[in-house]
Specification:
The complex is a heterodimer.
Chain A: E1 5-7, E2 10-13, E3 19-24, E4 31-37, E5 44-50, E6 53-57, E7 65-68, E8 75-79, E9 88-95, E10 103-104, E11 108-112
Parallel strand pairs in A: 2-11
Antiparallel strand pairs in A: 1-3, 3-8, 4-5, 4-9, 5-6, 7-8, 9-10, 9-11
Chain B: E1 4-7, E2 10-14, E3 19-25, E4 32-38, E5 45-51, E6 56-59, E7 62-67, E8 72-77, E9 86-92, E10 104-105, E11 109-114
Parallel strand pairs in B: 2-11
Antiparallel strand pairs in B: 1-3, 3-8, 4-5, 4-9, 6-7, 7-8, 9-10, 9-11
The chains are: A mainly beta, B mainly beta.
């Protein structure tokens, strides 16, 4: 069964550093998403991406965040200057239609120290 | 704003019993309602979903019901097994061709099935 692949599985970074989280969505999917889950809390939407542009973003997704699809297979989330409160599990997801069938990756656990 | 409330937060059942998890959504434009199972250290895995033009859907031991008028939907697991133990999330989306399809998640239910 096709999978969404995320790397790394765990990243530790110092406050103020830039991090890039990487995702390889399912190859024939057209809609891409980032979500985050702070420990013990619900999964929260960050951003959706379609046709090489952001289609929607949440208020969490401020100027410190950016997304990119640098080639035909990768989808990245960059946090420019990490804060302690950015510590969370970050999930990438993809969908063929944007109307269902969202498949999630296993996540990257980001720890900011 | 858009919100999904999920209850209960924890649920403990004996193996073989049924489990029911309930969700309420606030956005009346929501038209897609998936349920995800999350095991420790893994990402959410889709187990069943329902669209707003359907009232009920079943897949083996799991079923989902939707009441659009009351904006409620529920997950039913029958004949529970220890491997059903996990955190279950409901979600709602107003996914459309121009709307990106973001999911709004409930708070999660930690289901424990005791042998």
């Amino acid at each position: 069964e096709p999978e969404v692949t995320q790397t790394p599985s765990h990243q530790v970074t110092q406050m103020g550093q830039e991090v890039i989280l990487r995702c390889v969505p399912i190859s024939n999917h057209l809609y891409f998403y980032w979500y985050r889950q702070i420990l013990g809390q619900k999964v929260e939407f960050l951003v959706s991406f379609y046709n090489n542009e952001i289609s929607e973003k949440s208020e969490i997704f401020d100027d410190q965040f950016s997304v990119e699809r640098p080639d035909g297979s990768n989808f990245t989330l960059k946090i420019r200057s990490t804060k302690l409160e950015d510590s969370a599990m970050y999930f990438c997801a993809s969908s063929m239609t944007g109307r269902g069938g969202y498949t999630f990756g296993s996540g990257t656990r980001l720890t900011v120290v | 704003g858009e919100n999904v409330e999920q209850h209960p937060s924890t649920l403990s059942v004996q193996e073989g019993d049924s489990a029911v998890i309930k969700c309420t959504y606030s956005d009346s434009a929501s038209n897609y309602f998936p349920w995800y199972k999350q095991e420790l250290g893994k990402g959410p895995q889709l187990i069943i979903d329902i669209r707003s033009n359907v009232g009920e859907k079943k897949d083996q031991r799991i079923a989902v019901t939707l009441n659009k008028t009351a904006k409620h939907f529920s997950l039913h697991i029958t004949e529970t097994q220890p491997e059903d133990s996990a955190v279950y999330f409901c979600a709602a989306s107003r996914g459309g061709y121009n709307q990106g399809g973001k999911l709004i998640f409930g708070q999660g239910t930690e289901l424990s099935v005791k042998p």
